[in-house]
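Annex B. Sample input.
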Amino acid sequence: MNFQKAEFIKSAVSPEDFIRDGLPTVVFAGRSNVGKSSVINRLLNRKDFARVGATPGKTVHINWFRIDGKMYFVDLPGYGYAKTSKAEKTRWGRLIERFFSESGMITLGVVIVDLRHEPTKDDIIMSDWFKNSGLPALYVANKCDKLKNSEIEPSVLRVQKTLGIEDRGVIIPFSAEKGTGRDALAAEITRRASYRSGISGIER
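Annex B, continued. Sample output.
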């Protein structure tokens, strides 16, 4: 799988825009200031491919990227959102609700949290949704470069305890800035999400 062979396909502003062609879909979710777009950019080794803005919540639609012609990465609007009108927040909320309620839209979830802090209530809600749905999820503990090496594992265990995650192995310490955890995340996405297409191998 060549993660650098990525192309933007579309932004969904309504359920009619959702892509339903059967390819595996890896969905990235996280708070609006957690560095979600930066994680995607690092994973693809493509600078500024997914939008990165100084203002949290810049992703306001559901964005589809096709990876090597074999799977989709889907970038969701950050929960918590940026400052915007109540009507716009309501529209985003309905769009996300419809996306999560429709069967077959998600192959694998990638939930991004800030390793420096205890997961928020919204992080817990997102984690619980994946657990209750039975869909597989990985947890990217971003910004590990901001911690001392001795602080990383205790912080990971805090994430595990707060989110009620049984398998420590699904939590990946990550640095979008330095690339820590990039290969581990790429390998896990390929292993867990690509079985539908018979994909094997990773090109860095």
